Amino acid sequence: MENIEVICIGAAIVDIPLQPVSKNIFDVDSYPLERIAMTTGGDAINDATIFSRLGHRTALISRVGDDAPGHFIVDHCRRENIDIQSLKQDADIDT
Length: 95
Hints:
Structural class: alpha/beta
Radius of gyration: 16 Å
Oligomer: single chain
Strand content: 25-35%
Distance between the termini: 24 Å
């Protein structure tokens, strides 16, 4: 983590927003969705992404599972040029 300007420590999760969601979603047995997406979320990864996009050399310290959401987070960090040397992928937890 040489020359890192910003270190973000904390949550790195995956959000799965479903769209559209009707007001009466809890009153029906099933509801067709037009879109299901995966996005990164959590205070640390959100801040790390913002700082990196602003041109700062940024690192993330967090822990994720060695699962599909965890790999999604790692891929996101690589695309966003976020240093993940201190990101732990742990096979014993779920992201």
